[in-house]
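Acetyltransferase-like isoleucine patch superfamily enzyme structure dump, as promised
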Amino acid sequence: MLLLYRALLKIHTTYQFMIQKIYLKICLSKGLKVGKNVRFVEVPQFGTECFLIEIGDDTTFSNNVRFVNHDGGQNALHFFDEYKDVRTFGRIKIGKQCLIGADTTIMLGVEMGDNCVLGAGSILTSSMPSGTVYAGVPAKYICTIKEYGDKLLANNVIYPRELEQDRAKLEAYIKEHLPHAYKPVKK
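C-alpha cells r here:
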C-alpha cells in the first residue's frame, strides 16, 4: 500500500510540476518579465494581466503566492449607470533579491524595492521601500532587512554544515539536538 501511495504521489507531483512549467511559459509569452535566477517553490498565480508584472533578479517565491493586477470588485458596480465604464488595472514590480513568503497576495499598483522580505500570509496593498521587511494583513513595516538579519543571526541554529550534503543525516541531527525551546506567550 505504501508503494502505491508513493507512486501516486510521484505522479501527482510530476503532473503539478509540468502544469506549473507550462503556465509560466504561457505567462512569459504574454509579457510577464522575470529576471535572472528567480526561484519559485511553486509558480505564483499571476492573474489575467500577467504582462503588468515585473520581477527582479535573484528573487525567491514561496508557495501559494497570488498577484492581483486588476480590481474585480468593479464588476459589482457595473449595475449602476455612473460606474458602468469603471476599469481598474495596476502594474506590480518586485525588486531584486527579494523573498516573498508563503500564502501572500500582492495587490495592484505596488512596487517592492530591492532586498525586501514579505512575510508569510501577508497582503501587500502599498509599496515597500528597499531594504525592508513587511508582514500582516494589510502588510505593514516590521523592520529593516539588517534588523531582520541580526534577529535571525541571534537565533541561528548551529550544526555541522557538512551535514547539508546529506538531508537524512541533517534531519536526524536536528531532530536529536534541537532544544525544546518555545517562544513565550505575548501579553
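The CA atoms of residues 5 and 11 lie 10 Å apart.
lmk if u need the other ones
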